[in-house]
Amino acid sequence: MISVDNTYQDLLSAAAGDIPFEAAIEGLTRHFGAGGGIIFELNRKTGEIYDFATPNLIIGEEGYDKHINAINPRMKFSLRHAAGHVVHEKRFISDREMDRHEFYDWLKDIADFRYFLGTRLFDVGDVSIFHSIEFTPRHGAPGDDKIAAFSRMASAVGNAWRLRHRKDPGTDGATAAAWTPDHLPWAIFAHAKDGAVVSMNAAAKRLLDEDAPLEIALDTLRPRDRATRPAFRSALAKGLSGKTAEVLIGRPQSRLPLIAQIVPLDAPGTAHASRIAAITYVWDPLSQDRDIGRPLAALFGFTAAEQELARVLATGADLATVGERLGLSRNTVRNRLQSMYAKTGTNRQSEFLLHILGIMER
Question: For position 109, what pLDDT does the model report?
Fold first, then answer.
């Protein structure tokens, strides 16, 4: 699989309306070394397909929702399971059965596809959002590494799809409140063109409590930790100028900082610019207990020793503490870090942490 960074960037750009969602799906397809992909909304009661995005599947052709999807064994499996599951052929059908199934004949005829990775992302009333990546016989069935990577990335695809509906090109843009929903798993701040915070969700408000790591001064968001402010100010300026930026936010109650990502909604010169210029997403890398070792091995080729070092670094420990916990000398820790920097394309510890924690959390 190719680097995940550009894939997430494409999803963020598609969510903001800067690129077509088809382009983001195409990026996902490249990431998984697959042949195609799709995201669509389906009425579970009627079988009707509403909105969809795909660079190469003809899902809207006459008769699909009235016949083909009705016999689709993938769909039958997904409709029997709650939203959030991940499905692939090994879970419900054999290759021999696929050879005799009308759905797979149809799939072969339209694009020579055979295997897939799929998920039922969300349910909203009777409508569900589905997403899949398609593989040809030449690609073969997806292995455990791709299944694990798809499981990690699926929620980001669904969130980007839902966020994209919150912008209305051709008008003054979505209202500020529409960009800061409470159902998404991040603290979210909406910024006007001068950087002023004009809206925030409930999670963001909690980060502004008296002992919390962020504050608003003269309508502008900033860290309480003075040492972090210059980097945050620079990242916000970059986001307001049309480029995505990431930064760490120090907090006194924990060694491990928060991660902030500032995403522009409209690049300079874009027609129909929204009055909201950028969104800041903030998350806590310790909010969920994750084993980041195996994903890092899959993404960057970390050895077992490097995985263990990454796990300890992700707790916010300094190098001396890392050495004590792992029984390593300071020089050994530094040498392993240099190897990990090379594999992730980073140059220092803060940049490395930002890179790996951002990828694991998104």
Answer: 84
Rounded Cα distance between 220 and 239, Å, is 14
Look at the chain and report how many structural domains it folds into.
3
Residue 68 predicted with pLDDT over 70: yes
- The span from the CA of 32 to the CA of 15, in Å, is 20
Mean pLDDT of 138-155: 91
Question: What confidence score (pLDDT) does residue 236 get?
Answer: 95
For residues 234 and 275, membership in a common domain is answered with: yes
| Chain-centroid distance, C-alpha 231 | 23
pLDDT tens digits for range 16-54:
777 889 999 999 999 999 999 999 888 888 888 878 888
The model's pTM is: 0.50
Domain that holds residue 196: 177-283
Of 152-161, 241-250, 258-267, the one with minimum mean pLDDT is 258-267
Q: Kindly state whether residues 145 and 232 are assigned to the same domain.
A: no
Residue 100, pLDDT score = 93
DSSP collapsed to 3 states, the chain: CCCCHHHHHHHHHHHHCCCCHHHHHHHHHHHCCCCEEEEEEEECCCCCEEEEECCCCCCCCCCHHHHHHHHCHHHHHHHCCCCCCEEEHHHCCCHHHHHCCHHHHHHHHHHCCCEEEEEEEEEECCEEEEEEEEECCCCCCCCHHHHHHHHHHHHHHHHHHHHHCCCCCCCCCCCCHHHCCCCCCCEEEEEECCCEEEEECHHHHHCCCCCCCEEEECCEEEECCHHHHHHHHHHHHHHHCCCCEEEEEEECCEEEEEEEEEEECCCCCCCCCCCEEEEEEEECCCCCCCCCHHHHHHHHCCCHHHHHHHHHHCCCCCHHHHHHHHCCCHHHHHHHHHHHHHHHCCCCHHHHHHHHHHHHHC
Same domain for 199 and 272? yes
Out of 283, 310, 331, a domain closes at 283
**Phi, psi (5° rounding) for residue 262?**
-105, 120
CA–CA separation, 195 vs 197, rounded Å?
Answer: 6
| Predicted confidence band of residue 235 (pLDDT cuts 50, 70, 90) | very high
